[in-house]
Amino acid sequence: MPDVAIVHDYLSQYGGAERVALGLADMYPDAPLYTSIYQPERTFAEFASRDIRTTSLQRLVPQGRFRWAAPFLGRAFQNLDLSSYERIIVSSSAFAHHVRHSNAYIYCHATPRFIYDIDQYFSGHRLLADVTRPFLGALRQADQRAAGRHNNYVANSAVTARHIAEIYGKEVPVIHPPLRTEHLPRDPTPRPAEARALVVARLQPYKRIDLAIEACARAGVALTVAGAGIDEHRLRAMATGEVTFLGRVPDEQLAGLFESHSVVLAPGIEDFGLAPVEANYAGRPVVARGAGGALETMRNGVTGTLVEGDDVAVWAEAIVATLGRTWEPGALRDLTLPFQLPAFEAAVRAWTEST
């Protein structure tokens, strides 16, 4: 029996938190990975080679409906028997930190948005917000009790660290998520002659892809949207200008996607946000919201352009100005070095093996 186990919220989507879970699994290849729900066709293929162990919800939650299980996820994690492990490493942005263990290390991607910022999380989807709202009081109390059981926390960004301090009353250090590069271009290439913008994100309302669509239409710049999610129908209905929706793009196609676009847009306020760092590694500048995680990953005028607020005209101007500048792809890649996998692994081992 290995002395370490890894715990992650759910393996039923493609996202930055899931890439972190893969990084942890690479660090501890013999460790089983516990999760509430595992739907292999809806997450990264690399998990198929891991020892994945699920909760009782695995048999009960339909494909793509894991959010409707929210009232039951906390209890499902509490019921996991992890007592045979010396320590556990928990990758949590929702309910994974509800596990019970005397030596748990919680890597917090975010305090749960749908509990503490429901209107932003479900923006444009009032029915989902209204269904969730009656449960908020109980969910918040349970979430804070769960956090109170654990002493060893780190945050993925300064933004998340502030939220942890405000909500859980814990002052915690920061370990940035790892930039995994297997799915990115081997070498940074020059930007294509034809200007085209790219968004790579799950289609959730708080990602503000509607702002990217409107700004590109105003700027007269073609836009490609790579991703899937609950906001897709609304975004397609509102799209004007030249907008291409690709749905979820497999990892093996992402390198070519970055290479065929000139600029990457990140209009939402992220707790960290890996897509801008991936874009820089691919040699592409980023136009990002000047708030949240982008303030830790982006340098205005150096790795791209930071935009204050969500005024469409201001965003359109920033996109045009960024496209009009010269950016050195190799220099953009070099600036991602602090976020690459070796730095993450060293920081995690120092955190979990010295306390």
Number of helices: 15
The counted number of beta strands is: 12
Biggest pleated-sheet summary: 6 strands, parallel
Task: Give me the CATH fold name of the largest domain.
Answer: Rossmann fold
Explain this structure:
This protein is an alpha/beta fold. The chain has 2 domains: 4-177 and 340-353, 3-Layer(aba) Sandwich (Rossmann fold), CATH 3.40.50; 196-338, 3-Layer(aba) Sandwich (Rossmann fold), CATH 3.40.50. Helix content is 36%, strand content 15%. The chain contains 15 helices and 12 strands. It has helices at residues 16-27, 70-78, 113-116, 118-121, 126-132, 136-148, 158-168, 209-219, 232-238, 251-259, 275-281, 294-297, 312-323, 329-334, 341-353; strands spanning 4-8, 33-35, 52-54, 87-92, 104-108, 152-155, 196-200, 222-226, 243-247, 263-266, 286-289, 304-307. The strands form 2 sheets. It has a 6-stranded parallel beta sheet. Strands 9-8-7-10-11-12 form a 6-stranded parallel beta sheet, sandwiched between helices. Helix 8 packs across helix 13. The protein is globular and about 60 Å long. It starts with a strand and ends with a helix.
Q: What's the structural blueprint in terms of helices and strands?
A:
Layout: E1 4-8, H1 16-27, E2 33-35, E3 52-54, H2 70-78, E4 87-92, E5 104-108, H3 113-116, H4 118-121, H5 126-132, H6 136-148, E6 152-155, H7 158-168, E7 196-200, H8 209-219, E8 222-226, H9 232-238, E9 243-247, H10 251-259, E10 263-266, H11 275-281, E11 286-289, H12 294-297, E12 304-307, H13 312-323, H14 329-334, H15 341-353
Parallel strand pairs: 1-2, 1-4, 2-3, 4-5, 5-6, 7-8, 7-10, 8-9, 10-11, 11-12
